[in-house]
Amino acid sequence: MSVATVTLHERLRAALPNAGISLRTNPGPSGQHSLLVDAADLPDVCRFLRDTPDLTFDFLSNVSGVDWPDPAKADAVAAPAAGEGSAPPTGGFLEVIYHLYSTRRRIGPLVLRARTIDRATRVQIPSVVAVFRSAEFQEREIFDLYGVEFTGHPDLRRILMWDEFVDHPMRKDYVAPDDYEYEPTPHAAVLEKAQRHYVQP
Amino acid sequence: MGIDFNLVADLKSHGVHVTSFESLVNWGRASSLWPLQFGLACCAIEMIAATMARYDMARFGAEVFRPSPRQADLMIVAGTVTKKMAPQVVRLYNQMAEPKYVIAMGACAISGGPFKDGYNVLKGIDRFIPVDVVIPGCPPRPEALLDGLLTLRAIIAREKLLGKHRARHADPNGTAAFPVPEFGAHDLEPTANREIWNPPAIVRESEGGTQA
What we know:
The structure holds two protein chains of two kinds. By secondary structure, chain A is of the alpha/beta class. Chain A folds into two domains: 5-168, NADH:ubiquinone oxidoreductase Nqo5 subunit (Beta Polymerase, domain 2, 2-Layer Sandwich); 171-201, no CATH class. Helices cover 24% and strands 21% of the residues of chain A. Chain A contains five helices and seven strands, in the order αββαβαβββαβα. Chain A has helices at residues 5-15, 42-51, 71-77, 135-146, 188-195, and strands spanning 21-24, 34-37, 59-68, 93-102, 107-115, 124-126, 149-151. Chain A has a five-stranded mixed β-sheet. A two-stranded parallel ribbon of chain A has the order 6-7. In chain B, the strands form two sheets. Chain B has a three-stranded parallel β-sheet. In chain B, helix 2 (21-31) packs antiparallel against helix 6 and helix 3 packs across helix 6. The N and C termini of chain B lie far apart (43 Å). The interface between A and B is medium-sized, with 28 and 26 residues.
């Protein structure tokens, strides 16, 4: 059963008037709307959703990251509802998406989104590990692959790549190492990379 | 062997088996290969299936999977070798006692397979350690692994212990340990061991990509 995100948005605005929460509607057939939460307010919003007796969003199933080098594309699909939302940032940013479920009420997912200020240095988002322990490894993975720094995370270090690695491979501008020296039967994307190594007779 | 085959057959009918020392040693080595017990991905599931009763790798003397590289003769690289895992695989190989053999099982261990385009997948374990038998497949069926094992047995049976063409492990100057790659800032350093991995340069006739 899906979550009535629109009414939940009104409820959150009334309960947490100081939190920056805006509704992002999804015009697609699924109609899976999401709530864009100001990064600083994310732990408070999560705690409210978890602890309020008739909401009981007690299960964080998934945390995923998105890299938006072009912020116009970030809002192309999920346009802000009329009269809401702050002005879109000018540079690119990183986005983290949380899927909350209520096992007690058997509903979900409730989609929360939080954005960093930019993609270079101001990439901090408060960690929700204190609220949902299941976020610990997933936030480490997003830190590893996207470079989002989760402030307050108890053990923020790389989880998939090695510690000496400096890049963030899932970012759009990541350049993978070129080790396509020997490709006897290349095709598609591998063909393009292998052609740089071809010996022209 | 330098012995008359008719004489060998005649002696055999009287219960006397005549052979060379080399054949005896190779027969012993080929008949009790102890694989190193580790798996890297889904190929390991097929490797496990090959050891169980239905396929029964014990028929070929290779059922004693050892949890220590010191006791193992055979490394079955079963699955995707990530760049994070590659130094550990090389280190395990270096810790195995001679003679030691390597089977690259499946497309990933051979070339990176379907994950070749990934940023963290090693494009073939033969970049760092010498591979004796490659088994294509994604994953190879247990029969294919058994066939690879029989191929390795045939290779061992042909090995020379002396002379110019002797096996690597029989050569006092042969290499037993290979450099373990380091974790670099963007990739493994080096990306391949050029002493053992020297692929031929592929010359193309035109930009269309046909092979010369």
